[in-house]
Structure formats: C-alpha cells, structure tokens
Design a protein that fits this description.
Elements lengths: L6 E7 L7 H11 L4 E7 L5 H6 L7 E4 L13 E2 L1 H6 L4 E5 L2 E5 L2 H13 L7 E5 L3 H12 L4 E5 L3 H14 L4 E5 L4 H7 L4 E4 L3 E4 L16 E4 L9 H8 L3 E3 L2 H16 L5 H13 L5
Parallel strand pairs: 1-2, 1-3, 4-6, 7-8, 7-10, 8-9, 10-12, 12-13
Antiparallel strand pairs: 3-5, 5-6
Helix pairs in contact: 1-9, 1-10, 4-5, 4-9, 9-10
The chain binds NADPH dihydro-nicotinamide-adenine-dinucleotide phosphate.
The site of NADPH dihydro-nicotinamide-adenine-dinucleotide phosphate has 26 residues, from helix 5, strand 11 and helix 9.
Length: 289
C-alpha cells in the first residue's frame, strides 16, 4: 500500500522525536490490518494555530503531547465531558473537518489499574503525589469513578491547593484535601490510604524522593507510579516493594491511553498486550520520556 493511500495519524509536540507512541501505535495498526500510518510531527507553539487550521484537517486524528495539551483547546470545535473537566486534551478526532478533543490519559491510567491490579477506586481513599497535568487527569477520573477521598500532595503547596479547590467545586460530595510532600500532614493521610500514586516527575533521570515515610503508609496500600523509565521499575516502586507493598508500574497508562485513542479513531479495539510488548522493547533500548 502506498503512503498516499494510507490514512494518516500523528502525535504532535515539541519536542516529539522521543515519543514512543509511533512504534506502539504502528504495531497495533498493522495487527488490525488497517491502512493507517502514525507519524511524529514537531509543531512549535507558534505553529499550533496554523496546524489546527490546515494540516490537522487532513489527518484522521492525532495525539498531543507537551507543550500543547492545554493550548490546543481554543482551536478545537468540541470537547468531551471528561476533556472539558480535565481542561486538557491528548487525543483529537477529525470528523468532517471538525476537531473533537478527548482526554484518554486519566481513563488510560484507570484501565491499567483495574486490569492489571483489579483496583476499583469506588469508596477508596487515595493519596496522589503531584499536581501537574498528568495528576490533574488522573485525579478527575478517580473522582468521576467515585473515589471516597483524594489527597493531593505536592512540592508546591499552592499548586496542590489550587487543584484541590478546583476539583472540590466539581465534586462536592467527595473529600478532597491538599498538603505538602513533607511533614506530619502527609503522614496522617498515608495511614489511611488504599492507593498511593506518584504522579510527579520524580524518578526520571535517577531522581528520587529522599526519606519517603514508608512506615506511615497503610500496610495494605497499593503503590502506583506513572513514571515508566527506568525499567523495570522506578526507585519509588523498589522502595514500596521493599516495604512490603503491591506495586503498579507506569507503562500501562501509556499503553491504555494509546489503545483508547486508537479505538476512538478506528472504532476497533487494538491488541493492548502487543502494544505493551513493543513499548517495553523500545524502553529497553533506553528511550527516555
Ligand atoms: P508536569 O510538569 O505538569 O508536573 C510535574 C509534577 O512533578 C509537579 O507536581 C511538580 O511539582 C512535580 N515535581 C517535579 N520535580 C519535582 C521534585 N524534584 N520533587 C517533587 N516534585 C517534583 O508534568 P506531568 O504531570 O505532565 O508529568 C509528570 C510525570 O508523569 C512525567 O514526568 C512522566 O514521567 C509521567 N507521565 C507518565 C505518563 C504515562 O503514560 N505513564 C503520561 C504522562 C506523564 P511542582 O508543582 O512543585 O513543580
């Protein structure tokens, strides 16, 4: 099949060359025997508007990575309920020249958690470290799926507070707290959490939390890290395992956010196991985020 006849999908970002999505998505498309090609496109911030008005309309759809997940919003024709609530988009479907924005980051995380760890957030108490873009998507989905309480613990307390207050305005019946990463307040929350999530970038490039209070964490708590490099696990998860906790690794979120995006574009369910295998192989080749 010539490239001309192929429908194009893409990931846009700046930078984008490091993205693992093309290899993962192309493997899944090939397995589905679909004549689509998924390519990386470097779009600088100043090119975003023009891209959305021209090239984007020739694609079947595209993923969005840093730094465009929020700045793309004014150029989209419609947003799903989830994307609107999260305030960011990682997947766009082009339908008759209209661009529809989705967010599959949070639902990809939840799918990974449910499928791999059989963890359902309903009526659970959760502590999440981090208040950035990924944390925001995950928090929204956990609350939409009836988590009983959520603590947002962040290095910058003001950022944790802002996110917690914004979420509280949407989720009035659930308890949402905020605190810093150090001190007794976090320890108090750790004692009664069913799920502890690292949604900060700590763990990348050999960084780690110093003296994380593992002894204060509820003994049965599941520990999850969305950072997926280094493989096979981050130092956060190594420490959690050593402290006797079950762990949930970060590559599943990447796989399922991609699988959900592919289903939105093609209407077909891709082979998530294949996507994971391909992703892990790439990660072994020493790709960084
Ligand atoms: P953002 O830049 O939006 O947020 C970064 C977060 O990390 C903030 O909460 C920030 O705290 C915190 N942080 C950064 N450095 C430190 C530090 N030294 N000590 C404590 N906290 C720190 O990034 P994203 O939310 O988009 O992504 C976060 C990480 O999640 C990425 O690095 C990536 O590894 C991972 N990720 C994984 C995905 C997956 O599919 N598995 C998908 C998306 C992201 P502060 O506000 O104080 O600066």
């Amino acid at each position: 099949m010539s490239l001309k006849k192929k429908k194009l999908l893409a990931v846009i970002g700046d930078p984008v060359a490091h993205s693992l999505s093309p290899v993962m998505q192309n493997a899944a498309l090939k397995k589905l025997k679909l004549p689509y090609e998924y390519i990386p496109l470097r779009i600088k911030p100043e090119q975003l508007k023009e891209f959305a008005q021209t090239k984007a309309k020739r694609l079947l759809g595209f993923n969005i990575t840093i730094p465009h997940k929020e700045t793309i919003l004014p150029f989209l024709d419609r947003l799903t309920f989830e994307a609107k609530l999260i305030g960011a988009v990682n997947t766009v479907l082009q339908e008759n020249g209209k661009l529809v924005g989705f967010n599959t980051d949070g639902s990809g995380y939840l799918m990974s958690l449910e499928r791999e760890k059989k963890f359902n957030p309903r009526n659970r108490d959760i502590v999440m470290l981090g208040a950035g873009g990924a944390a925001r998507a995950i928090a929204t989905i956990l609350l939409l799926n009836q988590a009983r309480s959520l603590v947002i613990a962040n290095r910058s307390i003001q950022r944790a507070q802002a996110l917690a207050q914004e979420l509280s305005s949407h989720f009035k019946k659930q308890k949402i707290f905020w605190c810093g990463l150090e001190g007794n307040e976090l320890k108090k929350y750790l004692k009664r959490t069913h799920l502890l999530i690292n949604a900060t970038s700590v763990g990348l490039k050999g960084t780690h939390f110093i003296d994380f209070p593992w002894k204060d964490l509820y003994r049965q708590a599941l520990v999850s890290d969305i950072v997926y490099a280094p493989q096979p696990m981050t130092s956060f998860l190594k420490e959690a395992k050593k402290a006797g906790h079950k762990i949930h690794t970060g590559e599943g979120m990447l796989v399922y956010q991609g699988a959900l995006a592919l289903e939105i574009w093609t209407g077909k369910k891709p082979d998530a196991y294949l996507m994971r295998r391909v992703l892990l192989k790439e990660l072994k080749k020493n790709h960084k985020l």
